[in-house]
Amino acid sequence: MANKTYKAIVLRAVKYGEQDKMLTLFTLEGGKMSAVAKGAQSARSKFLGSSQSYCFGEYVLSESLKMPYLSSAEVINGFKGIGRDIRLLCAAAYICEIITVAFEEASEDRSAFMLLYHSLKLLEGCPGEKSLVLSTAFALKMLGINGSYPALDRCVNCGKVGEDYFFSPKEGGIVCADCVSAEGLAILTASQGLYLFDLLFCGMDKILSLNAPSGQEQKYLFKQINNYLVYTLGKNIKSFEMLYQL
Ligand SMILES: [Zn+2]
Question: Across the strands, what pairs with 35?
Fold first, then answer.
């Protein structure tokens, strides 16, 4: 029997048949993969902890059958602190869904794995009201990882700096009033652009100490970056709406 061990984060866990769960794992060594956790719906299952969403652990997969299944699993960090606040839970669902949507099966990406791990760790310890800051930063950094992040500090067309801009996913970032060609685009002030620029490029450990805008403004910026991500990926992120509405 071919068994392989992976360090992995559970992106998604859904009921599968009467007793099992189907896990979508993001593994450090092999990217995204699916595995059945047999009997995991039972409260006495040995996979009870390791088959929860966003759990980080070491998973031994048996790949002898058509669909790999868990042979054993050990929780390294279940990020239990996330469960204390619905806003943190929704943010965790959002960032896990971005990974699920952004990667095909078996496409390995260590940078994305580390970003996900550090984001979950940060979410676990942060106050609920910071969930949007973190989700916005995560979306931006994912755009950075796949090389399609928006221009945020100057007009993407003429390079003009320091004024109010329009935000255009289609054109790749902010455009100034002289260059704007489409109607109905969202407005981004120069300082909002620079704040997002900082979220994109500063280390994860600095995210929460940045001078974040207030609630409504943070929501607005989160929505713009999500729109940009959805446009770039060409796929919707379903858990955006719940996080946004909280
Ligand atoms: Zn311009």
Answer: 23
pLDDT in tens, 72-127: 999 999 999 999 999 999 999 999 999 999 999 988 999 999 999 999 999 999 99
Are residue 102 and residue 166 in the same domain, yes or no?
yes
CA of 150 to the centre of ligand 1 (A): 14
Same domain (yes/no): 91, 134: yes
For 15, 136, 143, 199, 206, the CA distances from 225, given in Å and listed in that order, are 32, 7, 10, 11, 19
Expressed in angstroms and rounded, the spacing between residue 85 Cα and the centre of ligand 1 is 42
Neighbours of ion ligand 1 (CB under 5 A): 155, 157-158, 160, 176, 179
| pLDDT tens, residue by residue, 175-194 | 999 999 888 999 999 999 99
Q: Judge whether residue 1 has pLDDT over 70.
A: no
Q: What range does the domain containing 124 cover?
A: 81-245
21 and 106 share one domain: no
C-alpha 166 to ligand 1 mean position (Å)? 10
Domain of 216: which CATH number? Answer: 1.20.1440.120
How open is the CA angle 57-59-65, to the nearest 5 degrees?
155
Same domain (yes/no): 104, 224: yes
Task: Say how many Å lie between the CA of residue 204 and the centre of ligand 1.
Answer: 31
